[in-house]
Amino acid sequence: MTGIPVLSIIVLAPVTAALLIGLFGGNPKLPRAIALAAGTIALMGAVWVFAIYDRVAGGFQFAERVPWIPSFGVSYSLGVDGISAPMLLLTALIIFTGVLVSWNVEERPREYFALLLLLVTGVFGVFAARDAFLLFFFYEMAVLPMYLLIAVWGSTRKEYAAMKLTLFLFAGSATLIVLLVLVYWQVGQGTFDLAVWSSHTFPRTFQHWAFLLALVGFGTLIPIFPLHTWSPDGHVAAPTAVSMLHAGVLLKIGAYGLIRLGLTLFPQGWGDWALLIAVIGIINIVYGALCAMSQTDLKYVVGYSSVSHMGYVLLGLAVGGTYGLTGAVFQMFSHGIMTGLFFALIGYVYEKTHTRKIAEISGLMQRAPLVAACFIIAAASSMGLPSTAGFVAELTVYVGVVLKSVWLAAAAFVGVVVTAAYLLRVLSHILLGDPSEAVAPISDAPPLRFAPMAILAGTIMLVGILPGTLYTIIGSGVAPLLQRLAGG
Amino acid sequence: MGSTAAAFTYLWPEIIVALTGGLILIADLIWPAPAGDGRSRAWLAYLGVAGLLAAAMATVPDIGVTKTLFGGIIVVDSLSAFFSFLFLGIGALTLLLSVHAVPKFTRWIAEFYALVVWCTLGHMLLASTGELFTIFITLQLTSLPLIVLIGYAKLDPKSGEAALKYLLLVLVSTAVLIYGMSLVYGSLGTSTISEIGAKLATSHDIGTVLAIGLVLLLTGFAFKITAAPFHYWVPDTYEGAPTPVTAFMSVGSKFAGFALALRIIVEGLKVPLNWHLIFGVMAALSMTVGNLGAIRQTNIKRMLAYSGIAQAGYLLVGVAALSSAGVASVLFYAVAYALANLAAFGVVITVANATGSTEIKSYAGLAKRAPLVGLACAIALLSLGGLPLMAGFMAKFYVFLSAARSGLVWLVAIGVVNSVISLYYYLRVIYEVYVREGETESLFVDRPAALAMSLCIAGVLALGVFPDYALRAANFAASALFR
Q1: Residues A241, A347: Cα–Cα separation, whole Å
Q2: Contact between chains at A182 and B409 (C-beta distance less than 8 A)
Q3: What residues form DSSP beta bridges with B76?
Q4: Cα B420 from Cα A166, distance rounded (Å)
Q5: Under a CB-based contact definition with an 8 Å cutoff, are residues B96 and B448 in contact?
Q6: pLDDT averaged over every residue in chain B
Q7: Per-residue confidence at A127, pLDDT binned at 50, 70, 90?
Q8: What's the start-to-end Cα distance of chain B, in Å?
Q9: CA-closest candidate to residue A456, choices A380, A397, A377, A393
């Protein structure tokens, strides 16, 4: 393509900014400016990649490759296909808006932005890596700053939530280490190159167990029932931008990793466990929605709704086929944007009212109509209403499921009903009625605070109304995977 | 005579180190300190550092050489050179960390430095001995100075208690060792390790006596490398010893044991015992006992003691692989662990110098009192926990990679579960450092310790991001064992 190493720029801009902040971030206003600059660079790069990516040719593009640790056969190898390009765009959107949302962080801004950017480098790296070791390296790098970000800047039982999240995620990654070393020797070519791994055919039994390892390891991150309990606690305790990144992007790493190291490498193993994944997916959808229904804290509602929505991703991955897989990836993108918007909104409300109790908030519509409008857009996407991204995603997944089994679809459909129920309950309470006492100090967000909400809400509508460009790029990424699954 | 003289040229590093220790004492006699002014003795430590660096220079020609001296008593090869660099580095860093800490508990400063230097000599020799009775003597050379060093803070009863405990341990482990040696010698009629290997390779029938002898030999080393179930002395000794001594022995003495064990194991392998299982079980026990023990600690020295037991377990995972790659991973792990652990102890020493406390709760607010020390603490502990960007990540991965190659998947599984457990207690300290509010007045950090910590942290990050050079060095050194 072009001579510019655009992927390296996207991946390394945040960590470079983190270093700059560490070195020169003494001035309290400087860190956020540097962070915004890095976010802007990454966003421009990601939009460029998304726009330029050759959907007809498909495959991995923008490839870069430099030997890194020849002793292990590891190279710094980057590349994007139709699955990772949307993920890069999602991450870039979330970090760009996340920096804007964090604009007024007053407590230790230097450490805050440095850690936030370190985390984002990890996330970008995971989506761009074409080497299993590199992918894993970036993945752990993304998890590491989470602990401090939650423990220092968080709220609500932050010490407990931070430790729980960290231990769960590292337990997941411990499983992945076992997977990596096993596959490395099984392939036996002294390389972690995913291209080599993906063209290797693994023995039947090996696939069976290796896929299970991938499912547990990445599933912890997705999060699959019953390994999900860290996730709502973590969402709630984290500061706003971290919640956005966490629910918006980090959970997608789990699903993405499962696609790359699970489905792609072990198609037969996928076949063995597909039914289990489908069942877990439905439990996630229904159980997550039911849990969301009984919450009193706004953030917990969104936290459990994430468990529920990631169930659609699992369901799509379980049934496979063009619609199932495309829908799963589409849902990853749309849920990321939607949940990012939710957390940005709740963060704003919490900042102004100092409460997240649903019972204490009402009448937002009167006090802050624009914020309320964004709430409605996010909820519409969450419920899967037409003209939002969530509609396209869930519809595609359902088509895939119905083609496979009507019963599965019927079971999953319960989730749609419950989702609508809890969202309408929450929305009617916080938006309608007379403004409550707590809501008194709130008014519509100033332009700088409204910008992130507008960007995310706009993306939801844009993707909902014109899904074509996202749909085709995902389709081009899913096509080789389909062949591999069919061949396995 | 000529050949003997030539043989001594290979021993220049050891000779320089031995002389450095003496030089420190003589210099102290010629230019005595004004009474009560411990600080003015810093230059003696720098003299020691210079001597150790000179010895490191003298070690350079040994790389790539394979030489057996004095009829097999001393083996000079890339492996011994690798360990020499490691032990010289550990000795030098310990001296730097001691400069401000030692005058706080003793007036006899020059002797302290000299003992550290001589103990380093013992470590270096242990890495290149090729004969059982020389091993016995060099072991004494490492143990005796260490006993004195542990009891150096003679006004602190804990220090004396620790020294006594270590003395008893040395007696017991020496007894076990020498019993094992006599059984091996009695069975095979030779005490040279290479000849033992040769005889083992040709004889088909291995007697019970010989097997018991070999196992006893390894038990003797297991004490030294703080492997479970021979670890009971570790927490008390580590806690009671003066902190610079704890730092020194937590890596120096441990790796000396490993250096020696590696040489013997490679030859001992020819005995048809299930060595994978023996070392695997020892590794699994050490990791689990160490990590579970560390969780409950409230004193950072005890916590690091238990963490050291666990780290010995990870090192043993590499040993259990019983391959060239396994040995290489042990070597790389040793470097990564030494750097991170010395940095962590640098923080402990700095905090103890300022506050007099080694309780974990006295670390509250450290990041605000001394931001760079707080950062060093976090990086060192995260490296010990095996997180990326830090050397510990690469080291753990390499150990697991080589163990998996030898089919020890169960051991890898136990290892990764353990590294998750270990994160819990490392993160708890980081929580104190970064999150908990504590005292706010800034903390004094002395220059030599700051230098030592900076070097360690730079090394930890360099190995964590660009490990390849060190990996190749480790592979090269390990291949010397498997000619």
Answers
A1: 8
A2: yes
A3: B67
A4: 9
A5: yes
A6: 90
A7: very high
A8: 29
A9: A377
Distance from CA of A225 to the nearest CA of B (A): 21
Task: Give kind and range of the element (H or E) at residue A69.
Answer: strand A61-69
Percentage of chain A exceeding pLDDT 70: 99
In the structure encoding, which two tokens stand for residue A73, read together? Answer: 């056969």
Q: What is the pLDDT of residue A488?
A: 52
Helix axes B409-434, A132-153, angle to 10 degrees: 30
Distance from CA of B382 to the nearest CA of A (A): 9
Contact call for B389 and A141, based on CB within 8 A: yes
Distance to chain A for B165, nearest Cα, Å? 36
Question: Does the beta-carbon distance from B400 to A177 stay under 8 Å?
Answer: yes
Calculate how close chain B gets to A257, using CA atoms only, in Å.
Answer: 18
pTM of the model: 0.94
Other Cβ atoms within 10 Å of A297 Cβ, number: 16
Residues 6+ apart with CB under 8 A from B90: B120, B123, B248, B251, B252, B255, B338, B342
Q: Which residues of A touch B398 (CB under 8 A)?
A: 72
Task: Please state the separation of Cα B468 from the chain's center in Å.
Answer: 22
Environment class of residue A386 by beta-carbon count within 10 Å: exposed (0-12), middle (13-18) or buried (19+)?
exposed
Question: Which pLDDT score, from 0 to 100, does residue B36 have?
Answer: 59
ipTM metric: 0.91
What tokens were used for A59?
A: 């495959």
**Backbone Cα Rg of chain A:** 21
Interface check B430 vs A, CB under 8 A = yes
d(CA A420, CA A424): 6
Cβ-based contacts of A72 with chain B (< 8 Å): 397-398, 401, 471
Phi, psi values for residue A79, rounded to 5°: 180, 150
- Cross-chain residue pair B417–A174, CB shorter than 8 Å: yes
HSE (CB half, 13 Å, CA atoms) of A92? 28
The terminus-to-terminus CA distance of chain A in angstroms comes to 32
Identity of the amino acid at B91: G
Interface test with B, best of A15, A119, A140, A148 (most B CBs within 10 A): A148
Nearest CA in chain B to A183: B404
Q: How far is CA B218 from the centre of its chain?
A: 17
Contact across the interface for A167 and B423, Cβ inside 8 Å = yes
Query: Phi-psi region for residue B192, left (φ > 0), alpha (ψ -120 to 50) or beta?
Result: beta
Of B404, B420, B467, the CB nearest to A174: B420
Mutation choice for B interface testing from A19, A134, A165, A178 by most B CBs within 10 A? A178
- Residue in chain B lying closest to A144 (CA): B387
The partner residue sitting opposite B431, judged by closest CB among A138, A151, A171, is: A151
Phi, psi of B229 (to 5 degrees): -90, 35
Chain B nearest CA to A188, separation (Å):
10
Report the gap between the CA of A113 and the closest CA in chain B (Å): 15
In angstroms, the CA A410 to CA B368 distance is 57
User: For residues B230 and A14, what is the distance between their CA atoms, to the nearest angstrom?
Assistant: 47
- Asked if B397 reaches chain A (Cβ–Cβ under 8 Å), the answer is yes
What confidence tier does B35 reach under pLDDT thresholds 50, 70, 90? Answer: low
Q: Is A1's pLDDT higher than 50?
A: no
For residues B415-433, b (16+ Cβ closer than 10 Å) or e, as one string? Answer: bbbbbbbbbbbbbbbbbbb
Kind plus residue range of the DSSP H or E element containing B75: strand B74-76
- Residue B179 buriedness (CB in 10 A; 0-12 / 13-18 / 19+): middle
Structure tokens at A275: 């039914």
Chain A: residue whose CA lies nearest to B395: A72
Is the pLDDT reported for residue B2 higher than 70? Answer: no
Tell me the helix, strand and coil percentages in chain B, rounded to 5: 80, 0, 20
Answer yes or no: do A140 and B430 touch at CB < 8 A: no
- Which residue, among B352, B335, B358, has the nearest Cα to B252 in the 3D structure? B335
